[in-house]
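Sanity check

After download, print the first record. It should look like this:
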Amino acid sequence: MGAVVAIGKYAFTQSYNYRSYSSYNDTVSYGKNTQLTLINIPKTVKSIGHRAFSYCTALKTVNFVGDGLESIAQDAFRETSSLKVPSFPQTLKIIRNFAFY
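Expected structure tokens:
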């Protein structure tokens, strides 16, 4: 088994009532993930996908373990109001719009 190199879109977001009308018009209703409070992201992870941690309302701490992360997608941490500002790795090059909205 290889190392984790990405956290995919919607990875920790609880969603329901998903209907795809086209690739440009998706409807997703989001439920709050109230279980996740801390996440350690290893240096092997290069990217965090779209809405990977959105609506994780109890998430307080994100630890980037070593340098490796290069990009954080749009809305990756949307509506994570309990989240404390993390210390980003020096390898981080891209933070997309509304990543921490």
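If your output differs, re-run the checksum step. Summary of this record's structure: The chain has no helices and eight strands.
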